[in-house]
Amino acid sequence: MSGDPVAVxxxxxxxxxxxxxxxxxxxxxxxxxRIAVATQWQLMWxxxxxxxxxxxxxxVLALFYLVxxxxxxxxxxxxxxxxxxxxxxxxxxxxxxxxxxxAPYVYALKGTRDxxxxxxxxxxxPSTKIPITFFARGEPYKLFGIIPADRHVLGVEGADTGKSxxxxxxxxQGRDLWSRLMFATRTSMTIGLVSVALSLVLGxxxxxISGYFGGTIDSVIQRIIEILRSIPTIPxxxxxxxxxxxxxxxxxxxxxxxxxxxxIGWTELARVVRGRFISLKHEDFVMAAELVGCSKSRIIFxxxxxxxxxxxxxxxxxxxxxxxxxxxxxxxxxxxxxxxxISWGVLLQDAQNIQALVISPWLLxxxxxxxxxxxAFNFMGDGIRDAADPYL
Amino acid sequence: MVAYIVxxxxxxxxxxWAISILSFIIIHLPPGDYVTSYIxxxxxxxxxxxxxxxxxxxxxxxxxxPITVQYFKWMGLTLRGNxxxxxxxxxxxxxxxxxxxxxxxxxxxxxxxxxWAVALPIGIYSAVYRYSFLDYxxxxxxxxxxxxPGFLLALIVMYVxxxxxxANVGGLFSPEFAEAPWSLxxxxxxTKHLPIPAIVLGVAGTAQLIRIxxxxxxDELRKPYVMTARARGLPxxxxxxxxxxxxxxxxxxxxxxxLLPYVVSGSIIVSLVLSLPxxxxxxxxxxIxxxxxxxxxxVLLLGVLTxxxxxxxxxxxxxxxxxxxxxxx
Lengths: 392, 329
Known about the structure:
The complex is a heterodimer of chains A (392) and B (329). Chain A is of the alpha+beta class and 392 residues long. In chain A, 61% of the residues lie in helices and 13% in strands. Chain A is built from 15 helices and 4 strands. Chain A has a 4-stranded antiparallel β-sheet with strand order 1-2-3-4. Chain B is 78% helix and 1% strand. In chain B, strand 1 and strand 2 form a beta hairpin. The longest helix of chain B has 36 residues. The interface between A and B is large, with 42 and 52 residues.
């Protein structure tokens, strides 16, 4: 895109009146022209880019979904490979330079038995350096379930990566936390999307009916929403989630949990959609369409929906963090996703025991992923919401 | 005014009814019925239940009848305060829940009081001194507060308490009071333990409430009557506190309606991390042991309490807001 539309919009909003000098005036009118012919989406995009936090949030989320899509690549070890011998190893530090050259390495770990507790403790052994390579070959996997591949983001030379590299340490069962976190990101970030898609369908249909038709059906749907919103959700979710049979497969539990969460989560989206329908119903362009004789579905989908779709996108984005928190909380309690499924909540189960946490604080690392993702979604949603009304 | 109260009351009754159905569904969702799990738990503890006893129990609970009849039977028992037996404990559900339920209420109320006490002044400050340094600080802290799920915050507080201060910040009572009967000393001990759970529970709600209060007050401050008050020479604190704040307070009060379910919800999971003697840990235990009568009752009672709380907040709103009191919506 040529020029800087953001600055352009600024000057244009000042109506060019404050501008002085022929050159600036010329730029002002040019800007006005661009504003005048810009599409709604262009205007929103310009407005959205001005929101710094929202832009930052979007970049962070893009990274998270990159990890979600290529979790097998970012994980360098098998997330399920447990070994009691390797339990609770502290995170390793990567040494980036070796004798002034860029040659990242980690120290090998040497296991010794603590003479007091007879527990195996691992200490870095400065005499053995294990060089780290990027895009190394390792465990074979199937990218997106179809493309065979064996490259991983990291690997070590001359040793088994899964047995010698622990960037974030290991959990109580000796599984590599970094690799588990990569797969957990995939589960937790997609559960938000799937669940919000379900809530969106329910919310748009019921909110749309409620707002467009009004009358009795509106009050019935509104009462249902009020009732659902006045029930404490976590106990309810716990009760429903506990009923998921224990012999269900990981995929079945995943969808059961998504459905349970979205069954209660649709109300906020329905409220937004209804509000939009009501405010648009009496707009001139809707009445014009009615007078011309458009069918109801044409009025709704061709005339009304495009003018508030941005609001729906904003509300949807803001609904995702709540869903992520719900899933994490349920799994943390052991009522949501269950091992062998890996999600942020499942990882945090290990952190439940406060004594264990004090000895091995790295078990709390997954919580940062939760917090950062939720913050990023909130910022992005705020940005979209502000940009949703570009004519304001 | 009467119409308003009646309307809210009807809605409350409707909500309680919906909650009762949901709780009933929760009780009946898992495979098997109460008697099968009762037999299982009895035989696990060594005492056998005969076929006849099982049949009698089934008949007494109406488990052989259609599901709608079962629902009404269960409701009938529940309304008379008979919630059945908590299997794992071998005691009536009421005995098991009793104290824990009141502590849940105490903690939820403490969290809401904290939320209000913090959100009100900060919200006013942030609106009056918009875009000031402190306003940005509060906005930032508020965002973080919103982004950290309650149980994570509890975990972090526990971790910091343990690792840095070597103290266990969990629990609601000191060990010597945990099993003691209620006394003034015990109540004081409870008060001393309340702040941490109340803060952990209240942070997210506080962040939201600050934003609501700030934007409400900003809208009011722009109105001409504020300028009129200033023009007439009222001192600034009076200009702000006496009129716009009062108007901005209305939506603030009405937020209890959604704050309460939120806080009660949060108290369940935060209690587990902070090991507070509320119904939270009990609910989780009951669900894991498939003691569905206990679990269903807890969900039901929590829901009903929330509805009552919301109803009280509606009455409060009516008292504060003359527009509602005088029958205008």
